[in-house]
Every structure is written in C-alpha cells, then in structure tokens.
C-alpha cells in the first residue's frame, strides 16, 4: 500500500503532482510519502497489539532526519548500526531509551558513546566485543544493557548479499557456543544481560526461516531459564520483505508475522523488540528521474536517464527489480517495447533494467522508480562527481525539501591541495 497514484493522467505523491516537485528541485530526486510511512508503521505496531512489542526502525534503510522525526513522533525507536546513526536518531528526537545498537564491528568509541548516551540495548555479536564492552562499562562505572545476537544458522531464501543468519555469515554468535557466552555475560562486570537478538536477513518473503529462527530463540530462552539465567527481552530483528512488483501480493502479512511471534514467545513473558526497516520505508519512496536520451544501439535500444547507480545502487548491487513508472500515464493502447534502462555513469553495471517493456518515452519525460524508500538515498554516493540528490517529503498537498542538493563547492569543501603542490 502506498500513496503514489495517477490522478488526471499524472503520477502524484499523495496530492502533489511529481512534475511540480521536479520543476522546483530538479532531477533526479527522492520523494517520500508521509502518509505511507505512517501507514506502514501503524500496520506493524497494530499487528502486535496485545503483545509487549516495541518497534525500532532500522535507520540504515532511510536515515533522513525528517523521516526519523516523523517515525519518532509516532512512537518508534531506532535500530542503529554506527555511532553516527545513533547520534543522528537521537538528534531527530528519538529518545535514547528507544535506541538499540547492532553491528559486528562496534569500536571502543562507539561503545562508550552508547554507554554515555544511555541507549536501551547493545546487541553484542562476539565474545571479544562482550569482553571489551565489559571493560569499558566497568571503567565508566556503569552497566551496559546487553542482548547477545545469535546466529541461528537458518537459510533465508533471499539474495546472498542480504542473507545474514547462516553459520558462514559474519553476523551473530554461533548457535552452538551461544549458551556458554550467555553464562559468561551473566557473570562479567559491567554487563546487564537483558536478552537475546537475531536478524536473519532482509527482503525475506517466506515465514518459514523466521519460524526456524524464532523456535531456536525460544529453545535458548527456556534452557537458559532452566539454568537460572532469565532473559527479559527477545529482539527479532528486521527482514520482512515487501512487494517490489505492484500486482504481486507474495510478501508475508505483518499480521501473520505477529501471529508467529505470539506462537513462539507469547507464553514466555518477554518484551519483544522489532527492527523493521524496508517494511516501513520501502514502498514509501520513489526515485524520480528524467530521460536524457533514447539511444538506438546495434543490438539494443537504451533509455538513458539522469539517475545513475550512485543514486540507486540496488539493481547493480543485488540484481534488484524496481518498477519503472512513466510519470505521464501511458495511453491504454500505447505500444510497449523492451528497453535497457541505464544511467550516465561510466560503468557497464550502471543498468537499472534489461529489456524492460516500456511505453514511448521522449527526452525530458519523467520516470519514477517505485519502492525506492529503503536502501535508496541511504546507499547513494557521489561517484562520478555527482551530488547526492535531494530528498522531498510530501504531506497531503504540500511538499518540503528535507535534504537539498549540495553545490559543487560544498561537495568538494573537505578536500585540500598540499602546500608543495601549489
Ligand atoms: C538491516 C538490519 C535491519 C533491517 O532489515 P530490513 O530488512 O530492512 O527490515 C534490522 N536489524 C539489523 C540488525 C539489521 O542489520
């Protein structure tokens, strides 16, 4: 469900026609629908009504300050993976008490910052990290609220680069050695052992791997309880997939996911933490781009856009599919022909779609990549000397630039030429 629809033949974000935004900020740009963000946040929280569950939005999917402020106002916490994200989320108004910190390589500076800021939970991913945290917290005379992230060794049927819960992945504590580490955590100074965490991957379209992981967690919580180690929190991570094809309803319903959580943990009296990212932000954003040229190659016809893989890397990085919508609605009888949709970057991999059937599109026409609200702007770069594109937030019939396009001077302001070259 999103709020990007054709009205009078023009694609709108809520009540704003996209060409109006293009005129104001130039292309390419990202546009987010506040109504869609709010809707998705409510869908997941309402699915867990009656369970003691807290939603911590995975800010790595979309860290725009306005987006974080909006979700924070609705009651969301944040799942962060660096001290930068942590400070940014707190600056956006998300209370530290609702922030959880994940990641395999948290540095000393990051862990001590987390302790000083008083965040809710640090998800520890290895024994060396646990020992380091114990040392830092003891030295600071404080207690670190810890969950141990375990690797449940389940295979989620998703792209290799976003699968995280198999034993050959770098994430989490090996399932077999986890109980020993819980015992250690329970005795180390400076550690306040709160719970257990998992995150098995992203864009998971089937509940089976979640079930397998949750049952392992349940088993672990019960067996530790038998030893007198009472875990109060279970952090289920994120990973719920979203539909990238409009007519494809195959992604699991949040209600079914919530029912599964209840089945696995409902009788344990634990607090659940959820870390959805894509589920909330994915379908709440579009990347809007302009056609620069239509080029007839020897073997293919190319649609050359002003957006490149530096702006949206998912197709190049994960072979991801994004629907490409002409902003001007095609006539019902428009002839479609297969085009290779590419950007201007000097790399063959700068390819958004191969042989995508599209209606006639002339230079200057606008197109929109759907489902670009998560891992879109957040993963963009300035490769090829291209400025990060503006981000716009729509609410009803108003739109606001929530990140402006930097000038070339701003982009290069941190660079300097040594004296000896002058
Ligand atoms: C990336 C990540 C998430 C969010 O994953 P989604 O698939 O976007 O829901 C949640 N938790 C952790 C630890 C992550 O690394």
From TrEMBL:
Catalyzed reactions per annotation: meso-2,6-diaminopimelate + H(+) = L-lysine + CO2
Primary enzyme class: lyase
Record flagged with keyword Hydrolase: no
N6-(pyridoxal phosphate)lysine carried by residues: 60
Domain Orn/DAP/Arg decarboxylase 2 N-terminal: 36-281
Record: active site: 346
Listed NCBIfam families: lysA
Protein name: Diaminopimelate decarboxylase
Lineage summary: Bacteria, Pseudomonadati, Pseudomonadota, Alphaproteobacteria, Rhodospirillales
Gene that encodes the chain: lysA
């Amino acid at each position: 469900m999103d709020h990007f629809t054709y009205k009078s033949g023009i694609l709108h974000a809520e009540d704003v026609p996209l060409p109006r935004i293009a005129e104001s900020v130039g292309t390419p740009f990202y546009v987010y629908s506040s109504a869609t963000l709010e809707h998705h946040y409510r869908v997941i929280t309402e699915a867990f009504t009656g369970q003691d569950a807290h939603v911590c939005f995975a800010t790595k999917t979309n860290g725009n300050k306005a987006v974080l402020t909006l979700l924070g106002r609705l009651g969301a916490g944040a799942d962060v993976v660096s001290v930068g994200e942590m400070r940014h989320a707190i600056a956006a108004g998300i209370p530290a008490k609702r922030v959880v910190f994940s990641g395999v390589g948290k540095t000393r500076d990051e862990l001590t910052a987390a302790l000083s800021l008083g965040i809710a939970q640090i998800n520890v991913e290895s024994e060396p990290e646990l020992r380091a945290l114990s040392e830092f917290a003891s030295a600071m005379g404080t207690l670190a609220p810890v969950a141990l992230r375990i690797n449940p060794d389940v295979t989620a049927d998703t792209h290799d680069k976003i699968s995280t819960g198999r034993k050959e992945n770098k994430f989490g504590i090996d399932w077999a050695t986890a109980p020993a580490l819980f015992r250690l955590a329970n005795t180390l100074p400076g550690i306040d052992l709160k719970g257990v965490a998992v995150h098995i991957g992203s864009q998971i379209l089937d509940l089976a791997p979640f079930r397998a992981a949750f049952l392992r967690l349940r088993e672990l919580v019960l067996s530790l309880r038998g030893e007198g180690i009472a875990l109060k929190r279970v952090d289920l991570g994120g990973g719920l997939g979203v539909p990238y094809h409009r007519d494809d309803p195959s992604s699991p319903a949040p209600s079914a996911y919530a029912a599964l959580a209840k089945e696995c943990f409902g009788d344990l009296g634990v607090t659940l933490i959820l870390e959805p990212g894509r589920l909330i932000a994915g379908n709440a954003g579009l990347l809007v781009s302009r056609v620069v040229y239509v080029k007839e190659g020897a073997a293919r016809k190319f649609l050359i856009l002003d957006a490149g893989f530096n702006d949206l890397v998912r197709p190049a990085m994960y072979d991801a599919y994004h629907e490409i919508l002409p902003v001007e609605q095609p006539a019902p009888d428009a002839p479609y022909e297969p085009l290779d949709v590419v950007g201007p970057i000097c790399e063959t991999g700068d390819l958004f779609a191969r042989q995508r059937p599209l209606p006639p599109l002339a230079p200057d026409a606008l197109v929109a990549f759907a489902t670009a609200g998560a891992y879109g702007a957040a993963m963009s770069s300035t490769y090829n000397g291209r400025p990060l594109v503006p981000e716009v937030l729509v609410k009803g019939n108003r739109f606001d630039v929530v990140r402006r396009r930097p000038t070339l001077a701003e982009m290069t302001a941190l660079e300097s030429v040594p004296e000896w070259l002058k």
